[in-house]
Protein: DBH-like monooxygenase protein 2 homolog isoform X1
Amino acid sequence: MIHIFFSLLLAWTPVTGAQQDILMPFVAHLDPKNNVNLKWGFSDVQDTITFQLTVKTTGWVGFGLSPNGGMAGADIVIGGVGRDGNYFKDYHATGNSFPLVDKKQSYTLLSLTEADGQTTMTFWRSIQSCDQEDFHITDSPVKLIYAYGKTDGIGYHSSTRGTKEVNLLKFMPRSSPRDGNYLDFVMDNFIVPAEHTYYNCKVMKMPKLNGKHHMYRVEPVIKNLDLVHHMLLYSCPLSVIQINEQQCYTGGPGADCFKVVAVWAVGGLAFELPENAGIPIGGQNHDEFYRLEIHYNNLAQETGRRDSSGMRLYYTDQLRQHDVGIIDAGLMVSSWGYAIPPTASAFRSYGLCNTSHFSDILPDPVPDLSVISILLHTHLAGRKVRVGLFRNGTQIDFLAVDENYNFEMQGFINLATIKTIKPGDDIVVECTYNTATREGITQLGLATTDEMCLAFIIYYPAISVDHCWSQPNMHAYTAMMGKTDYQGIVELLKTKAWDQASIAVHEATMKKVPQIGVISNEHNNYTLYEGNILNMMATPSVSCRSDPTGLGL
Structure:
């Protein structure tokens, strides 16, 4: 009955800092300026979690749990100290509009105070609420969102809002090395072309480091949030020996730089590795070059816009236990002939990564890979992304699931527990798209109006595998559709009169045809394979307890 004891303690006795620390031992700063601070504690036995939100404002304050860092699907509480007393309510959001009051108020206010220019709100709820309008808290990281106003008139929060990913039930504060050394890989006053989509690539020489180091934190350096869609930093092979800057995917120096070192997408935050792992940099007996790729999304096609965005990489000479690697898995971006039909409310696409072929390009035996984090990536039509792990033809787990994918809120999903990929396992990336408002087919490609279906898998120990993609065998698709003209299949799909029945047939056929896969690494080694998409299990539902106290409350 921890929450009952805590409520009585707050109501009838002065609460010292030490007492609150015992009840709420965990602390996180939710914003960079430390204006929004959160304390919390929980009881597994009683299935309760208590929060204390402190914000530097004398207006209203809001706090929520979000599936993706945005408003849609978020579970929110809003409160404050007004002229007529305290106010506090439980809300849920269905979109980017003012949230709706929950029919069942699942959060209980314990105290609300205003002093020294700041508001402190303390409240509790069940960890597993049975209210369908509430967010189920699990031992996986959750996106915490906050917002506040200068007055008690609850309205649009403008810039006084934000999000931070925290594992509430398995919180592990990280301590960074004291040196704080970093490298900046950024554009230099680049003039963004007046084009809807433009990829700019800049090859840079890394300063010489004395021996091997570990990179442990990546911070985005974003100068124009309305232009920068995503960024990738690649290390270059020995063949690249000069700096260069040009449009990506047009050849030239740096075209062979494809080993992913860091990645950021719109809505993402800084990413920090656990204290036992780091991405190796430096220590080579030759110059090291890196290629920064930025996807610019200039919707208004403005002229004269300049940008100096990029990434800041923190590193240390205090080597960690594991070298980290990144594998980019999913549907091949350049899948010729692949088409997502229009007017589809939920069209599923699949990419297959067959790890049994890793050994084809590796000289050493393939170890078990420990997955610690994943970034999921689609473009504007993406609504859901799931990454299934299969062993001996049977799904044993999900590596990641986002049932409320938000194009504007793309960030790493830190896993609650390390998940193991064993040699021979299959990884299936499933993306669900909504094209209900589109009139023509959507193809795979680089523009935001095209689509992608990718999962960037962060794991250790690092092996020399960078990409593991697949695409449906379009020759087989042509035959299954009863056609013989392979080259004309795209034009057929473009002019097809789509309805829900034909969309379902198209999805099923794309899933049924054999997949042609490719595995490659930074040394231009690659292998091809063929496989089939296996059926995924349903996303596990979260159980709840209607009465966590056991007292009939």
Observations:
- The helical segments are 2-12, 17-23, 474-480, 489-495, 500-512.
- The longest strand covers residues 212-221.
- Residues 1-20, 546-553 have pLDDT under 50 and may be disordered.
- The chain has three domains: 26-166, 178-321, 324-540.
